[in-house]
Design goal:
33% of the residues lie in helices and 19% in strands. The chain contains ten helices and 15 strands. An eight-stranded mixed sheet has the order 2-3-11-8-13-6-5-4. It has a five-stranded mixed sheet with strand order 1-10-9-12-7, with no helix packed on it. It has a two-stranded antiparallel ribbon with strand order 14-15.
Length: 339
């Protein structure tokens, strides 16, 4: 790979970690050749707006079934304009083509730029990617964009549309459990959620590294607009990794840890990862539906909960502590009642 001035120094990071570590074999065992390619459950979201009660109920049932059995599903007829998705992708690509020094030192998007994994101690903990992990509370701040003025309007429109879409799906999941909507919806608003703009550069040492290391999401749910042509998303299904076939007409939704805890394990937060390509780059945009750090995450039926009650802030703090101590996230098992 020719080193471009817009690429982060990932090969330098990888080489240093490889020289310091003996875990190269452990890295390879995560990359199984010839993975089965799967078609995620595909939900026509227009059913939620139908005037027919049976069609609405059928659509809701499909969402809840996929959330329980897969933890992942795809949606089409979701109401997000194709033109908006294309404009957001165009602006994202333009942003990542900025020189590396410009991305790291300019305060772009609330200083949210990151690459690799600064806490990695061995190659299997390195993520071969760069990203802007942006709090929605900052996207209206004109000072965050610098010369990327055209990004501001598109990003605000995109975030607003994703917020409404995420909450419409969350309402279905909450209603399915027989819980009241109002109190739950107050936990999540535009000031508590995040967007992550991802770029996975071509990787000369693929398949020995991850694009994004195996993990579960620490939110309620995530909506992913992934590259329509370049695959890479893989998830754990029936105790084995499967590759997700890209669908150019669909968005991907996955359940996060908070919904698994809230539903008392009815909905599944599934481990997933991203692989990289030796020849071509890959882009994706993730929208994370999150509560405030002060919000308590308890099971909708507290008497039967297998998890202790905790705040989102406590959960994030425990994750950071575990990553620092063990090199990886432990997640929900830390909060089981029996521990």
């Amino acid at each position: 790979m020719i080193e471009c001035n817009h690429n982060p120094p990932l090969i330098h990071d990888y080489t240093n970690l490889l020289n310091q570590s003996r875990d190269r074999v452990d890295v390879k065992r995560y990359h199984e050749p010839g993975l089965e390619e799967c078609e995620l459950p595909l939900v026509d979201l227009s059913g939620l707006l139908s005037e027919n009660d049976e069609e609405r109920a059928s659509c809701a049932s499909e969402i809840c079934k996929a959330s329980s059995e897969w933890g992942f599903f795809q949606i089409f007829n979701h109401g997000i304009k194709v033109d908006l998705l294309r404009k957001m992708r165009k602006e994202q690509a333009k942003l990542f083509k900025a020189p590396f020094e410009r991305k790291t030192a300019s305060g772009l998007l609330d200083n949210s730029y990151r690459w690799g994994n600064r806490t990695a101690t061995c190659p299997k903990q390195l993520s071969w990617c760069e990203a802007f992990h942006v709090p929605l509370s900052k996207i209206c701040d004109d000072t965050c964009y610098g010369e990327f003025n055209s990004l501001r309007e598109v990003m605000q429109e995109y975030a607003s549309a994703m917020q409404e879409l995420a909450k419409s799906i969350a309402r279905v999941l909450v209603t399915n459990m027989g819980a009241q909507r109002g109190a739950w919806e107050d936990k999540c608003n535009a000031s508590t959620c995040f967007m992550r703009l991802n770029r996975y550069p071509p990787c000369p040492v693929s398949p020995e590294v991850f694009g994004l290391v195996p993990h579960t999401d620490s939110d309620f749910l995530t909506i992913l607009h992934q590259d329509e042509h370049v695959g890479g998303l893989q998830l754990m299904k029936d105790s084995k990794w499967v590759a997700v076939k890209p669908n150019p007409d669909a968005l991907v939704v996955n359940i996060g840890d908070l919904f698994q805890a809230w539903s008392n394990d009815v909905y599944k937060s599934v481990e997933h990862k991203v692989t990289v390509n030796q020849e071509v780059e890959r882009h994706s945009i993730a929208y994370f539906l999150c509560p405030s750090y002060e919000s308590f995450i308890g099971c909708y039926d507290e008497e039967k909960s297998v998890y202790k009650r905790f705040t989102f802030g406590e959960y994030r703090s425990q994750i950071q502590q575990d990553v620092k101590t063990f090199g990886h996230k432990v997640g929900l098992p830390r909060f089981l009642v029996s521990t």
